[in-house]
TrEMBL record:
Residues 531-661 form the Golvesin/Xly CBD-like domain. Residues 53-372 form the Glycosyl hydrolase-like domain. Coiled coil: none annotated. This is Family 10 glycosylhydrolase. GO terms for biological process: carbohydrate metabolic process. It comes from the Bacteria. The keyword Transport does not apply. It comes from Nonomuraea rhodomycinica. Residues 1-22 form the signal peptide. GO terms for molecular function: hydrolase activity. Keywords: Hydrolase, Signal.
Length: 662
């Protein structure tokens, strides 16, 4: 759907100041959210483990881009494929999917307004033998994924022959409602009856199904086709009185659809979120001083989408602008546009998530920047500097799955190491805290059961058995194990030897979170081992090339060590006495700074040989970060090293490590 959009934009290593520890993600101005933000502000949080963040992918049905993979599959094949997409989302620690259910003025549910989609069976109007929308919503919710139903507002067909439409298609029964342009058929946005019909068709899905969101994409008036004019002059003559020109009239037609959809959705179901993924550029600053410092296609002028006004008027709950350009693009720089949209939403109550071009990463023919596995990950790293950015949506599912050049693996390993709650919406009161009724250790882990009144629940685990809950334990996602719509969960990652305390919170439909339950402690079966080695301890060794600094307030202990990268290892080593052979969790602590190294090599001396993990020390400092779990031999030896051998620039840092038997 979006692969051709970038062509509409003409082709056209400054160090950041050290960042303070990240504050809580922006959310609705409720008392509970304000309280949570105050707690988080008083805690040192890990920006790599945000507590709240929307993580989603678009699942496209038009032209069978993602699902179904082909028209005419059996019911069982279609359902198996869709379950696999949801399982992929869970595997990548996403918490929502945006699924196209009305791609070409047709339906993925038994709509009384529009025919069954041809992308299901190969024949428009043919019953697929089940209700796909009911099935998809149920399967998504079983995995505690939000289901956002994605509707294309005006497109009728990717061809311009109305006789190819099923005979009962509303566009055939009402030929005055449509026009052909650029080889495609569209509903005419300027006809009031068309607008009412589109809204009614969408609202049928809203009222009949348990949707979490309604999503419109960027196709409003058609994208410009050279040498062609949109054939709506007669419609403008009929309905355009009082407008300065046809462009203002067209924009207002789209505005009316957006405003009325917002009103109708929330009148029917207040908890359903309404969002749009507009083209990434509203207007260029060379045209309008309110615009962005870009030089690409202007959606305000080209497709009559006044996306900035939708935010300022509060007609949407969120926007997901499609910022499908790389960092440093001369016509449309990712950083420039993300900063511009952040400024637009600030103070409005409209949430901002970013549409990310997973389809470009590692793809043939894309700019060189997209051949860098870190490009997508660097987008999310930049997002951390913009607290208005509450998450990301990836186009599209097949590109997330393809993971060309390992780009999405890097996104997950750098940014999605823990689950995340969705950003809170609205002003509802948080539900009551649940009660844990049992926490039982068994061969499969620790089994929890609880009672509560939430739509969903979040499960947290902290080490040991504290007498009272530390509010900072819930300030980010470092202790968050899972979210679920069930009232049971088995922690299969629990060590048999370690003692833990579990907490559960309740979440409502708009993700307001309750206070945590009373903690439920579970004793370990043996004596746990954990050792911390600081750079000032006797177990630390480094050559004279390593300097000592107290510059960063994020340091562990009294100081930390730093060195320039070179084409030689020269590691700083952390030595420890490992009591017995087994599996050990290795954690690292370092102060972060935008000028530090983006790929610092950490070397772990495992029982099967040295393993190297690179860490971006530009961000995520001042907290313990899990490097991984490794098999270690018994004995006293250099367990963890920080190498200088990296081709990237910026100091490599060695501060502290923690080694814990699991």
């Amino acid at each position: 759907m979006r692969a051709g959009v970038a062509a509409l934009v003409a082709a056209a290593a400054t160090l950041l100041a050290p960042a303070a520890p990240a504050a809580a993600q922006s959310s609705a101005a409720t008392a509970a959210a304000q309280s949570s933000a105050a707690v988080t502000a008083a805690c040192t949080t890990d920006p790599a483990k945000p507590k709240r963040q929307l993580r989603a992918m678009w699942i496209s049905s038009v032209a069978n881009i993602d699902w179904p993979s082909a028209p005419g599959l059996s019911v069982s094949a279609q359902q198996s494929e869709f379950r696999a997409w949801l399982d992929l989302a869970v595997q990548k620690r996403m918490n929502a999917v945006v699924v196209q259910v009305r791609p070409t003025a047709d339906a993925f549910w038994p709509s009384p307004y529009e025919p069954w989609s041809q992308w299901l069976t190969g024949t428009q109007g043919k019953d697929p033998g089940y209700d796909p929308l009911a099935f998809m919503v149920s399967e998504a919710h079983a995995r505690n994924l939000e289901f956002h139903a994605w509707f294309n507002p005006y497109r009728i067909a990717n061809h311009d022959d109305p006789t190819k439409l099923v005979s009962t298609h509303p566009a055939r029964e009402n030929p005055s409602w449509r026009f052909a342009y650029g080889g495609k058929l569209y509903y005419n946005p300027g006809i009031p009856a068309v607008r009412a019909f589109i809204e009614d068709a969408i609202m049928d899905a809203v009222t009949r199904y348990d949707l979490d969101g309604v999503h419109l994409d960027d196709y409003f008036y058609p994208y410009p086709v050279s040498g062609q004019t949109i054939p709506d002059a007669a419609t403008y003559s009929t309905y355009g009185g009082g407008y300065a020109g046809i462009a203002d009239w067209r924009r207002d037609n789209v505005n009316k659809l957006v405003r009325e959809m917002d009103q109708r959705i929330h009148a029917a179901k207040s908890w359903v979120t309404f969002g749009i993924s507009p083209f990434g550029i509203w207007r260029n600053s060379s045209t309008d001083p309110l615009g962005s410092a870009t030089s690409g296609l202007q959606s305000y002028d080209a497709i009559y989408a006044d996306s900035r006004q939708w935010v300022k008027r509060g007609w949407v709950d969120y926007l997901a602008p499609q910022i499908y350009w790389h960092i440093g693009n001369t016509a449309a720089d990712y950083k420039v546009l993300t900063a511009w949209w952040s400024d637009v939403v600030r103070g409005t109550g409209v949430q901002l998530v970013i549409g990310q071009a997973a389809y470009r990463a590692g793809a043939s023919g894309q700019d060189a920047a997209w051949q860098d596995p870190a490009e997508l990950s660097d987008h999310l790293t930049y997002n951390r500097t913009r607290p208005e950015v509450l998450g990301d949506v990836y186009f599209s599912a097949k590109d997330v799955k393809a993971d060309r050049i390992g780009s999405f693996t890097q996104v997950v390993s750098t940014h999605y190491t823990r689950p995340a709650l969705l950003p809170a919406r609205g002003t509802a009161a948080a539900p009551a805290a649940p009660t844990i009724s049992a926490a039982t250790r068994g061969s499969g882990g620790v089994a929890l059961t609880w009672q509560g009144s939430g739509t969903a629940y979040a499960v947290y685990r902290v080490d040991g058995s504290p007498s009272t809950a530390d509010p900072c334990a819930f300030a980010d996602a470092r202790n968050l194990l899972t979210t679920t719509r069930k009232t049971t969960f088995t922690d299969a990652t629990a060590s048999a030897t370690a003692g833990y305390t579990y907490y559960v919170t309740a979440l409502d439909r708009t993700h307001q979170e309750s206070d945590p339950s009373a903690g439920k402690a579970v004793a370990g079966s043996g004596t746990a081992f954990s050792v911390t080695v600081d750079n000032a301890d006797a177990g630390f060794t480094a050559s004279s090339s390593w300097g000592t600094s107290t510059y960063s307030s994020q340091l562990h202990g009294t100081d930390y060590r730093f060195a320039d990268p070179v084409s030689a290892s020269d590691p700083a080593w952390f030595r420890a006495a490992i009591p017995s052979a087994g599996s050990y969790k290795v954690e690292i602590w370092y102060p972060s700074n935008a000028g530090y190294n983006s790929a610092t090599p950490y070397v772990v001396a495992t029982s099967t040989g040295n393993q190297t993990v690179t860490v971006d020390q530009r961000t995520g400092g001042g907290v313990w970060r899990v490097l991984g779990t490794y098999p270690l031999n018994a004995g006293t030896y250099n367990v963890v090293g920080v190498s200088r051998w990296t081709s990237t620039t910026g100091y490599v840092i060695a501060d502290a490590v923690r080694i814990t038997k699991v």
